[in-house]
């Protein structure tokens, strides 16, 4: 019986199996369920059809409906066939099947779709085939000329595919790729693809296996893979082997690293690695990761029993150790919306294990172990930490000071506790705002730490800096400030501030009044610092056709007593001081709590800014600071680190500071900052920087000049403090075409005519493939640690995996 007109049938699915089943990239070829048309006859109107339920545990929702639309619908009662022909469209839920012809055989229980078959899944997958023949229980079937495309451009194509046992799908003469098809020439081979005689997709193991396969680039076989497997791209976490890694090191020899990932549960897993080093033996690693409802943590163990310690230089720590191991752990938890708790820690058998064996994220020279509790409210902040500082260095003894057998780590500080608390009043307090700052720090150190120390010269000299005192220093500091502003009738902005600070210091240091400790007493210290500040600004605003201009003279006056107890206790957190426009109008210019600025002072200058209609802006700040009365804290010579010396603030009239920042609003920005001698305008310090960011390229450059500071070294590098510092640096990236990019960086010391660090690289990126190779070099003369030259190589195939390797080609640790 036939009806030539177009048939439109809608079935309300009650306690039925689905007519369409989703077909995932993992290989589900099922798309049609068992349908009983025995009572249908030849009808063109919607009827309710009762169909037996195959999926008893997960039946379709009662309200789900199936819509079949075709040019012609035929029911062949003799053969038990239901046939839809001509532009067949079947929709069930959010799944759709389109074909030239669909047949359902009630006797054999098979569903066959012919001609231009296309299935659109709810997840966006599109399945194309010439013919699909499948059983109505979704377990077995056959597809010819199959092509699967996912929304993220992963594609599988095959001459034919067969499904068996409801879980395993075999593609014959299949091709897999994660590259998009060429729009101009769809038949053009993609950048890479895996071609195999057989591709097997197993829904139980969630894997894709290839037999007699080859990796092709632009259609040319490059690597033969007799057997190869990877996880289903739709599966984000799956147990299995990880991509192997290879290495080469003079002391370790050739290394092969293989990992295995155990997907134990959606929220925790275990990863095991084994690395065989030709000269040192087997290194084992385990990492446990666990995600909880309010956070996550991880624990990693690594260990090796070195076969040949003598392969290392006999002056290195590595040559003295056999059984070496480390435990690394970190965590972060949200206690509630305001509070966080976490930790980061490395515990190792010696001072250089993690660095020598490149333990992930802990192979750098400087490591900070800490545990912390942080709270952030609308107008308050709380941060409590315990910190332990490690220096991973191969040196057995620290002999630079030539005193005892001090190691770098014995000189490093332990801080327990370190507390910062800040709160400001929520409402205006007497026409102003009230704030509270509290800091607590207890710093311990096993042995002293001295810069510019020359024992042969006898007692400490003027340029020696006692950056660490042997023993423990504990300090409690608290400060209360009231600050309010008002605008007068003539446009002046007047800000007043009243503050009071108190410090309590308890010190227990060793070797008092010696070459290694200038302190003379361990008595507790109490000091206070009240201050009153008046600040006057007079903003003048002018507008033009192209810009808005603001010129603002600023005068700031601070009255307070002299600073007390300078040099009576260790200076741990106020060792760095760079005087420039960023702190010109700061009430206290010291960087930490161990020093507090005293004496009456005036800070005078101006700010000019312009905002242009093109989106650009210009900002200029300049000024000078004056000591009006009392002792100048920056001129003190008894500070243990000489922090104020040669800062530009040590004279009653400071050096001049100025800065200019400009941004054109279209990717170009530049800035300059200078400090000029207050007597002859000689250049004391200068920083010049520029940045260009465009779609096809980006560049940054900088120049730093600092006049020699023989009594103060403002950094922890090995740069000679007795000479000027002239340093230029630049970095850039250029897109050579749509996919290729070149990049590099260079830092050069003009004073010594030496390269401080440099790097150069080339990278390729597209929708399915990435490649990069780079060279980097770090000069030991400027790090005080090691000279490191390396080549980094990485390659990645989307959905398959990648390879990343750094090859050291000249690492000489000190």
Describe, in plain words, how this protein is organized in 3D.
The chain has a 30-stranded antiparallel β-sheet that branches. Strands 1, 2, 3, 4, 5, 6, 7, 8, 9, 10, 11, 12, 13 and 14 form a 14-stranded antiparallel β-sheet that branches. A two-stranded antiparallel ribbon has the order 27-28. The radius of gyration is 37 Å and the shape is elongated. Strand 41 (740-749) and strand 42 form a beta hairpin. With 814 residues, it is mainly beta.
SSE order and pairing:
Layout: E1 2-3, E2 7-12, E3 65-70, E4 72-76, E5 81-92, E6 95-105, E7 110-120, E8 126-135, E9 141-149, E10 155-164, E11 168-177, E12 192-202, E13 207-217, E14 220-231, E15 240-241, E16 245-249, E17 253-265, E18 268-277, E19 281-292, E20 295-305, E21 323-334, E22 339-348, H1 353-356, E23 366-376, E24 380-391, H2 408-411, E25 414-424, E26 433-445, E27 449-451, E28 465-468, E29 471-487, E30 493-509, E31 525-537, E32 540-543, E33 547-559, E34 600-612, E35 617-629, E36 656-663, E37 668-676, E38 683-693, E39 697-706, E40 725-735, E41 740-749, E42 754-765, E43 769-778, E44 786-797, E45 801-808, E46 812-813
Antiparallel strand pairs: 1-4, 2-3, 3-5, 4-5, 5-6, 6-7, 7-8, 8-9, 9-10, 10-11, 11-12, 12-13, 13-14, 15-17, 16-17, 17-18, 18-19, 19-20, 20-21, 21-22, 22-23, 23-24, 24-25, 25-26, 26-29, 27-28, 29-30, 30-31, 31-33, 32-33, 33-34, 34-35, 35-36, 36-37, 37-38, 38-39, 39-40, 40-41, 41-42, 42-43, ...
Poorly predicted segments: 1-62, 397-405, 714-719
Largest pleated sheet: 30 strands, antiparallel
Number of strands: 46
> Span from first to last CA?
93 Å
Structural class by SSE content: mainly beta
